[in-house]
Amino acid sequence: MGAVRLHPSAALLYAPLLCAPLLFACGESKPGAQSKSIAAAFETQSDPAESAKQAGEDMRRLKEKVEADRAKAIEADIDKAATVPASLPADIKTACAEMRAAYDAFVGHRLGGDMAEAEKWAVMKGVDLDPAQEFCVAQNNLRFAACQTHAFREAAPGVARERAQELIDACARKTGAPTRAELKEAERAGKTLRPS
């Protein structure tokens, strides 16, 4: 019996049948193995509600860390700006007038071109500047006044205008003047703090 010859188009029809046994022989996994691996994948999946809760908790912790890092950076900027310069003004009134001008400019820079806020500040700035200048003069401390001037001029852009009192308090701590908290505590206790 001789070799059977197939027409080329017939070879195309029979090729899948001839190759099928080869696929199973070449390492195709057992039929049950695939279903077992799929079942194992479903078993290791966590509860979607629990995953969402965990993701929310992770996001909250990350936000807290970012906020804490940002707060530390701002505190470092405040501490760096609150420096007593090498040269001091000649008298306390001049020193406190310079501090007032620096405080005014500090707020002006932070308004960032907001005309409505700039107009409010122009009208209301005495509410912040007058007490700050009076307190500065009352302390009769050239180092304190010069430190405040330096702090307002050199504060990093990230130090918001709402942190002006923190700049003043940082200078107070560095020069022996009372801080806002110390003044409130003394007021509660009925004591008067003497100028530094």
Could you characterize what this model shows?
The protein is an all-alpha fold. It has helices spanning 8-25, 31-44, 48-81, 92-110, 115-139, 142-154, 164-175, 180-189. Helix 4 packs antiparallel against helix 5 (115-139) and helix 4 runs parallel beside helix 6 (142-154). The longest helix is centred in the N-terminal third of the chain and has 34 residues, at 48-81. The model has no long low-confidence stretch (mean pLDDT 82). Keywords: Signal. Residues 1-25 form the signal peptide.
Give descriptors for this structure.
single chain; signal; Lipoprotein; mainly alpha; 8 helices
In brief, what are we looking at here?
The chain is mostly helical. It has helices spanning 8-25, 31-44, 48-81, 92-110, 115-139, 142-154, 164-175, 180-189. The longest helix has 34 residues, at 48-81.
Query: What structural category characterises the helix and strand content?
Result: mainly alpha
- What sort of overall outline do the alpha carbons produce when their principal axes are compared? elongated
Number of helices: 8
For the report, how would you describe the main beta sheet?
none
- Straight-line distance between termini: 122 Å
Total beta-strand segments: 0
- Series of H and E elements: HHHHHHHH
- Radius of gyration, in Å, reads 38 Å
DSSP helix fraction: over 70%
Strand coverage percent = under 5%
Mean pLDDT: 82
Fold blueprint:
Elements: H1 8-25, H2 31-44, H3 48-81, H4 92-110, H5 115-139, H6 142-154, H7 164-175, H8 180-189
Helix pairs in contact: 4-5, 4-6, 6-7
Protein name: Lipoprotein
Keywords: Signal
Organism: Nannocystis pusilla
